[in-house]
Amino acid sequence: MASSDHPVFQRLSRLQLVARRRNIGYQTLVFQSSEPRTERCKHCGRQFSTDWKAFLCHVCGLWVCQPCSCVLERERELQYITFIRSCIDCVSMLNKWSDADLFTEFATHPWVVSSSKKQISLTLADTLRIKKESRHAVLTVLKYLGKAVDPDALYLDTIEEDEWIAATTECNVSHPSDVDVNSLETPTERVHHLVQLCFEVEIPEVPLGDCVFAESDGTRHYALRYDDPDEPSDAPCVPDEDERLRTIEEYGSITRSLNTPLMQLICALVAKELDVWSAYITMVKDKTQYLVAAPPGCPCSMALKRSQSFCAYALASPRPFMVRDASMDIRFRNLDVVRGGSHLVFYIAFPIVDENGKTVALLCALDSKPHKSITTMQYSVMQRLAAMTSSFLQKIVDQCEQ
User: Fold this and answer.
1) Which residues form the GAF domain (predicted)?
2) What pLDDT, in 10s, does the model give residues 26-36?
3) In which domain, by residue range, is 16 found?
């Protein structure tokens, strides 16, 4: 009689094979490694030769021999099956999934869908009316977006709170939007004019075809190195890492004082626009990720090991980065923030760049619910806010150098 460890009992059923190939379809794989071929198999350690050939594991991106690997089906598009090679270590990861039906849902849903609906105008207006400590920051954002306002205007602090609260979020003011707010005679007129400017904010919508994300085609270039398949892998290597770290090091104490009302407002705008749990500005140093700005009231002193962070992977490409459901991704499902109590499974990040276009920080958002897609307007707003943050950060750096 065959025992329970006999190979016949370890074979997957037909439904399990379908689920696995769709699971593989959800993962990002390596087809062209950025690393040179090693001399020995990562699994058995045997040296490669003309007789003992090397094969690339498309899952981890490392080199293995034929006996230490196998060929598996991959279904990234429904009913379109391709074949990939996986080392036996990675097969154990691919044989685990929580809900097979989700693979079908994500396979049939685009990353970005067309929609011009935006939240930023209402969020700016509500913040202006209700949050005294953020009003100068709102005017700074309005000025960056092309509105004729003075963020340092003294009259802001002379307007009574009752005037702000009394202003409706659907105000109808007869003054033209380009009028000089200082020429308005009463506080009520000034309040209504500023609220009106919030609703006149226009964000150019990025065309659907230009809303691109790193790895959205299911491929990546970096390898995954892990000691235990049930634990997070090491953080991937980042292009120009030494230069990036040197730039952050030159910022010095600036990175410890970025949680200003302006940066807090930008984070709050992102969280509202994407309807997510929270948004942050992060910087990733040698082995640690730091939160440098967060929405008002949110803690901004948290630090994570680099290998435990989404941002370590976002840095691997200059493009925006999105994880639609981390619990389904072999790279992220073992992170503490995913499998722990917070259960953060959605992540999106846009690069914050220096004057040379190098990524020095990330404007990112997280949520406890998966997001199959975002809209073209959400992409556009976040792209604009990331560019705004880059501009403000560079201005701070320039002021400190003077």
Assistant:
1) 264-388
2) 999 999 988 88
3) 7-98
